[in-house]
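discrete fold record:
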Amino acid sequence: MSFYEKFVQNIRLRRFFVLAVVIFILFLARSMITMILLTFIFTFLALHLVKCIQHFLKIPSLILVLIIYSLIVFFVYLIITNYVPILAKQTVQMYNSVVHFYQNPDNNDNQLLMIIDDYLEKSNLTAQIQNGASMLLRYVQDIGSLGLSVVLSFILSFFFMIEKKQMADFSKLFLKSDFDWFFQDIYYFADKFVNTFGVVMEAQFFIAVVNTVITTICLALIGFSQLPSLAIMIFILSLIPVAGVIVSCIPLSFIAYSQGGINDVIYILAVILIVHLFESYVLNPKFMSSKTDLPIFYTFVILLISERLFGVWGLIVGIPIFTFFLDILKVKPIHSANEQLDDSI
């Protein structure tokens, strides 16, 4: 028996080699990791939404895909045309208010703002402003890159969905090739990861719903208008673990300042802080641990470490990756057997 034949028959060593190759390829493609993960997430959500609808309504998959993606584009159009102009107008109003105060400090009787103005006058902030401008430019570039990744991922996901049957038939050809063992092991790992990712996505969905309900109720008590559009924005951002709640405070603070001044800004920041702490220390560990059967301590430590290593994406894929390794190392098997890759393709 040749060395190659022995290697192929040694399933444990063979799968370790395949996993190492996959990790190495992902490392080489790390500049595209955002688009890869977004494409996976969009496709995963679309597949399960179609499957859920077909459980109640026997509608062909192609028609459902066209309807779902058309509705998504329509809702994005509504948000851009209705919500973004309001946010831009309120941002300009806030900027004009700050400029008016700075140009007319003697006409303002707010002692706190007077102290801030006096500090700005005594401080040499030229270097800080220049650094801030360059940092803002980098943020704008990052946002533009992220927007392009979102658009491309959405398009790739759409093409995958409308050609789901053809994708399945073509992909199965690799399982019958001369290197069938390699692609069978890739299929094995992909099946494991899809299962774990499905469990975590379900948990994050429940967290997003709870965050949205709590925050929207608080906004209604404060006196915010445009609650439906704000609730949609909060829900979308809440799908990003931990960081989404923090990001949402930026537009909410702008709107709060234009509606009620600095007092409403303080109120909304207090609400965001409470919701953030509630998600970080209660919802995230509790929901994640209940869905993945991990101890809360392990869940919380994984979130901290993965955020340090991979940033925001670490918060999203940290738990699935950890659970994935638990399963392939035979430490703890995945119980969600109904989440199969066959359904995905």
Remarks:
- Confidence is low (pLDDT under 50) at residues 337-345.
